[in-house]
Amino acid sequence: MLPLRRLEDFGFVAEAENPLEEPNPRLRRIGGGVEAWAFASETDGSVYKFYLPREEKQIGSVFGFGEGDESRLLADAQLGTYQALLEKLALIQHLGGMATEVVAATPEGVIVAKQTYGEPLAQGDDMSARLPTELIEIPSRFLRANRDHPRLCFFHGHAWLIGDLHARNFVRGADGALYVIDLVASPWPVGGSARDPLILDWLARVRLDPRASVLPASQDHEL
């Protein structure tokens, strides 16, 4: 169970119609997007992210899967669930991302996560050769996604699709290393086109060898 805390406990004005939009003596807003608003703490060098619930108790983002035209699978980002949000935050840790801790839920359904502060990268930086080494490139014949750099990851023995790995979702830590701070993720689908024998065979082989080619004894650039 997550601790139940009020927005006032983080310095927001309780009486305000939109507390996160009001000045906060303890937290300075540094960013925000569809999923969450981010604030830097003036005291402990941390970033607090407030994930906002949407309609029908949806929160965060996940991938939904459909049938593709040029590829077997099409992945589109869509609203997620509370469980998916917690899984995503755990995946950030699994990938060696910036230290992340879920610290609270509020009565309004906001999830509060705390991350170590890092210096943002320049928007538009090319991350294609700077992604976490655990991530496996997915052949375009198998999947197309509407988020940057879709990759495969194995987490707790299961295959996951990871994406949205653009420069704004990375920071540089005090040690000079790059750390992921956000992403979009979903378990790899098990039905429909995902049951294509070529995809199943590839998944089995990259589980053992992340460098495995699309087909046995072939090189990806030959296909």
How does this structure look, described?
The model has no long low-confidence stretch (mean pLDDT 93). With 223 residues, the chain is mainly beta. The protein has one domain. The N and C termini lie far apart (49 Å). It has a 5-stranded antiparallel β-sheet, with helices on one face. It has helices at residues 82-94, 197-208; strands at 27-32, 36-41, 46-51, 61-67, 73-79, 100-105, 111-116, 119-120, 136-137, 143-145, 151-155, 158-163, 170-172, 178-180, 184-187. The longest helix has 13 residues, at 82-94. 11% of the residues lie in helices and 32% in strands. The radius of gyration is 19 Å and the shape is globular.
Structural class comes to mainly beta
Report low-confidence residues grouped into runs of 5 or more: none
- Nearest-angstrom radius of gyration? 19 Å
* Structure annotation, total helices: 2
